[in-house]
Amino acid sequence: MEAGLLIKPEDGRASYDRFRNRLMIPIPDSRGRVIAFGARTLEEGGQPKYLNSPETKLFDKGSSVFNFARARGPAHDKREIIVVEGYMDAIALDQAGFPNVVATLGTAFTERQMQLLWQLAPEPVICFDGDQAGEGAAARAIDRMLPALKEGHSFRFAFLPEGNDPDDLVKAEGPEAFASCLADAKPLIEIVWHREISAQPLDTPERKAALEARLERLLESIGNGRVREHYRREIKGRLAQLWAVQRPQNPRFDDRAAPRGRAPARTGFGRAPRALPDQVRRIRDLPTSPRGFAITIILSLLNHPWLLERFGEEIAALELRAAPFAALLDELAEIILTEPEVTPDGLADALRDSRHAKLFDRIAKESAFSRISFLQPGTPDEEVEEQFRDLLFRWRALPTLKRELLEIAPYLSEASDAEFEQFVMLQEQVANDGVAEAHEDAGDREAKERLAETIARVRRERIGLNRGRRT
């Protein structure tokens, strides 16, 4: 009775077997000891279809993960754990060659279950059905996962084809189809972003503000400060990109805008264009190194101190790799904050009296960046603000643009000559941005080399094609 195997009716009738006419599945604890049972009905149309033991002194559903003990070894070997909803799916996947699988017994994710899963792998892959119910379940899981995140530990989301659960997919299309879904698993940040930008149209200032407010509440729910800050930076960069894509074309940056009313032409990429001209426009005047960017920021604040109040949060979040420039920027910001009415001349005098005098003089007198138009005295505040905001956006966008280059590369052979040249120009500018310098890791270097090889190959093919046409 205490184990939940028997049910004693309150009306005095004889006790009976809780799991009669059911296939019983043992539910072990993390050490492999049986603590409960799950059971599937053997009767046609029998309800409920699945039934678990009630919670007992031994069995707490929210603290249990089915198949934990058996999956521990394979999960550590593969550095991956697959998480499904029910034990029948877990059994089917184990039989199909995925021994690193566990099930949450149909419960919403609890903090205890998340801690157990992280004992098996740092980024468990959670499998959801690819229908609306699956997307809804994934969206609900976000709110429980964010508060528990910590350094190096998160979750990935794999969505199965609509109408399939893991067992159905493996039986219909084989283990390879399920493995393909695992390979396409999305990180948690992608699910967060997709959920929030899909919640409502973003066609008014109020709706855009509502999106930012929702994202801010989610960020505040992340308990780990370091993880929260990285999420904040990622979200800020994505918002900057989103708003930049939605903003009207600025003729000062792009004099090739299509005539009004004309739809953008489809490109030879075989899908919607990747807006290469817009990307080129974003970075056309961007400093080509962290050093140049740091100098431009410093000169911006020197000539227009009020920018610090307007863009204080964005400036505080900057990560300048060159320590001397970072120290000079800190000193400059400290002076402005201490003396809000300070003039550009007053700032210059204060910096010449500081320990950064030598570096400041070199920047102020010798830097070519001092000739940038919006840094000049007398530039209207509106123009200064717009160009400074664009400078911050374009710098933050560089890592994303680099990823987009790699995504576009496989389609280069289908691009028109003009698109190909635009791509090459964009790649050359981004390659010189200074983000990938001598300290870049092997993965960055390999990706860069592959991209260069692709461009060279496509260029050779185009040269051969043009020669063939001439003959």
From TrEMBL:
Its EC number is 2.7.7.-. Residues 251-271 are annotated as: Disordered. The keyword Transferase applies. GO terms for biological process: DNA replication, synthesis of primer. Residues 79-161 form the Toprim domain. SUPFAM superfamilies: DNA primase core, DNA primase DnaG, C-terminal domain. Keywords: Nucleotidyltransferase, Primosome, Transferase. It comes from the Bacteria. GO terms for molecular function: nucleotidyltransferase activity. The keyword Transferase applies. Residues 260-271 have a biased composition (Low complexity). GO terms for cellular component: cytoplasm; primosome complex. CDD domains: TOPRIM_DnaG_primases (cd03364). This is DNA primase. The lineage of its organism: Bacteria, Pseudomonadati, Pseudomonadota, Alphaproteobacteria, Hyphomicrobiales.
